[in-house]
Amino acid sequence: MTATVIIPARLGSTRFPAKIVASSTGRPLVQHVVDQVRQCQRVRQVIVASDDQQIIDAVQPFGTLAVMTHASHQSGTDRIAEVATGLEDEIIVNVQGDEPEIEPEIIDRLIERLQTSDDQMATAATAFPPAARVEDPNLVKVVINQKGYALYFSRCPIPYWRDPDTMAAPTYFLHLGIYAYRRQFLLDFSSWQPSRLEMAEKLEQLRVLDRGQRIFVLKADRATHGIDTPAQYEEFVERFNTRRQR
Q1: Distance (Å) of CA 160 to CA 117, 134, 135, 169
Q2: Is the link from the previous residue into 159 a cis peptide, with omega within 30 of 0?
Q3: pLDDT value for 181
Q4: Residues in contact with 167: Cβ distance below 8 Å, sequence separation at least 6, in sequence order
């Protein structure tokens, strides 16, 4: 089973406009994501999918395959589904375009899971970092059953710690925004109407659970950080320059 990683990329961002092409390192932000994916052992190719020519032009000098998609897509999933329609790979991985330090091992492990099981979809999570606030609605939580499948995703702290005086705190898992799909499942998923749970939480993976389908959750050792603000980008640039000087 071959695998392609598709990176959906758009210019719009409320907190950091045009972050995807920010280039203080000499490379656009999205190109750093491509560079990480190229280190994977189980990926046949990586494609940047965008609706803006500026992004296409920014990555092409680095030899990155980039394709133009329709501007009407409501989500990154719809964007990658458009590209996947023309591919023959059995496995499609959706990697966010603002994750320049994503670990190649996580991508490979997700692909391996689909290659060695009958799962149709897989994602990743990690135990909440000590410094992260579990109450933060921007940090999505997931509850995982004993067989490794998602029970629910929420922006609220789940599970609810009802009796803190009589029991230890539960383990909270932070959802990481990466998904691996069997290609046909991805195409089916993108054709389903959004569910009420999905619209309430603004989490499209709930559409899958609402349809009675399973999502396997790979437990990662740590979280990598997406870039949401100019300050976070500057911190990444500093880390990148430090690594380059070693």
Answers
A1: 32, 11, 11, 9
A2: yes
A3: 98
A4: none
Does residue 245 fall inside a structural domain? no
What range defines the domain where residue 130 resides?
A: 3-222
Q: Model pTM greater than 0.90?
A: yes
What CATH number is attached to the domain comprising 94?
3.90.550.10
157 lies in some domain: yes
Residue 138 falls inside a structural domain: yes
- Give me the helices (H) in the chain, please: 29-37, 53-59, 76-84, 104-115, 183-191, 196-201, 206-210, 230-244
Cα–Cα distance list, 94 to 23, 47, 106, 128, 159 (Å): 23, 10, 12, 22, 27
Q: How many separate domains does the chain show?
A: 1
Answer for the pair 177, 95: CB distance below 8 angstroms, yes or no: no
What pLDDT, in 10s, does the model give residues 107-140? 999 999 999 999 999 999 999 988 889 999 989 9
